[in-house]
Amino acid sequence: MVYIVILSIFLGIEVISNVPAILHTPLMSGANAIHGVVIIGAIIVMGHASPDDYLALTLGFLAVVLGTLNVVGGFVVTNRMLEMFKKKK
Asked: What is the C-alpha separation between 21 and 82, in angstroms, rounded?
């Protein structure tokens, strides 16, 4: 499994480094949609965790917070990039 994770890291770096700047905004929006699914999954896991399982509740809460920060930050970056392409008055 470690071998697969290391290969996927190198593959991800190679793919991302070859993406042209014009495609960065649509890819960022797609990544935001994926993180929205992560947030929903974390909420579902937290809902099914028993009240005594503090580890699951803490990790679920952390996943919700970090996923939300990632989605909001991604939309802020996407908005700034789209502002660069607008005509100035």
From this structure: 12
- Asked, for residue 39, whether it belongs to a domain, the answer is yes
18/44 Cα distance (integer angstroms): 36
Tally of domains in the chain: 1
Buried b (16+ CB within 10 A) or exposed e, 50-89: eeeeeeeeeebeebbeebeebbeebeeebeeeeeeeeeee
**pLDDT 10s digits, 61-82:** 998 998 888 888 878 877 887 7
Give the HSE-up count for residue 13: Cα atoms under 13 Å, Cβ half-sphere: 5
In degrees, rounded to 5, the angle at the alpha carbon of residue 5 between the alpha carbons of residues 37 and 57 is 45
User: What residue numbers bound the domain in which 70 lies?
Assistant: 24-82
Q: Is the pLDDT of residue 31 over 70?
A: yes
User: Is the pTM higher than 0.85?
Assistant: no
